[in-house]
Amino acid sequence: MATQSIFTSKVLKAVKLIPKGKVASYGQVASMVGVPRAARQVGRVLYEHGGKNKIPWWRVINNNGYIVIKNPEHSPNEQKELLEAEGIKINKKLKIDIKKYRYIPTKKDLKILENDDLYIQLILRKFKNL
DNA sequence: ATAATGACATGTT
DNA sequence: TAACATGCCATTA
């Protein structure tokens, strides 16, 4: 296996920070690792690494609250069941009340991801207003 | 070095 | 509400 890029390793680290019973959006994870507009890249990382190294890939959904997984090894229904097993309610259209379940990162977690103080303040404000 | 790709996000119809 | 359009950027070809 090739050496992972900084971006990839940070994404994996960030996803592991999402607590059981909570979810985060792709764009949110991108912001957490310092590249706010790299949501699609977060999706690609999970496509490759989902199911490996205890990565809780199922806790990442899109910003509208929908399960949008496209991976032959992990179906939308599998993701739904994994989330329900953690106590999250999901309707028939695979929609989640993201306002209710969204993980708001802590300063400590954002420090772990090597963000500087100014940037941390910035994205904390951003997610608290959701 | 250049171009295409896509587990997204956001604004406009 | 849903469909469509545009912007994005790490990877890959």
Please specify the SSE layout and strand pairing.
Layout: H1 6-17, E1 24-25, H2 26-32, H3 39-49, E2 60-61, H4 76-84, H5 98-101, H6 107-112, H7 117-128
This protein binds a DNA duplex (13 and 13 nucleotides) through residues 5, 7-8, 25-27, 30, 35, 37-47, 50, 57, 60-64, 67-71, 74, 79.
Summarize model confidence as the mean pLDDT: 95
Strand content: under 5%
The topology string of helices and strands comes to HEHHEHHHH
Helix content range of the residues, please?
A: 40-55%
Number of helices: 7
- The unreliable regions are none
The global form is: globular
Short structural description:
By secondary structure, the protein is mainly α. The protein is 47% helix and 3% strand. The protein has a two-stranded parallel sheet.
What attributes does this structure have?
130 residues, globular, DNA-binding
Can you give a write-up of this model?
Helix 2 packs across helix 3. The protein is globular. The protein contains seven helices and two strands, in the order H-E-H-H-E-H-H-H-H. It has a two-stranded parallel sheet. The termini are far apart. Helix content is 47%, strand content 3%. It has 130 residues and is mainly α. The model has no long low-confidence stretch (mean pLDDT 95). It has helices at 6-17, 26-32, 39-49, 76-84, 98-101, 107-112, 117-128; strands at residues 24-25, 60-61.
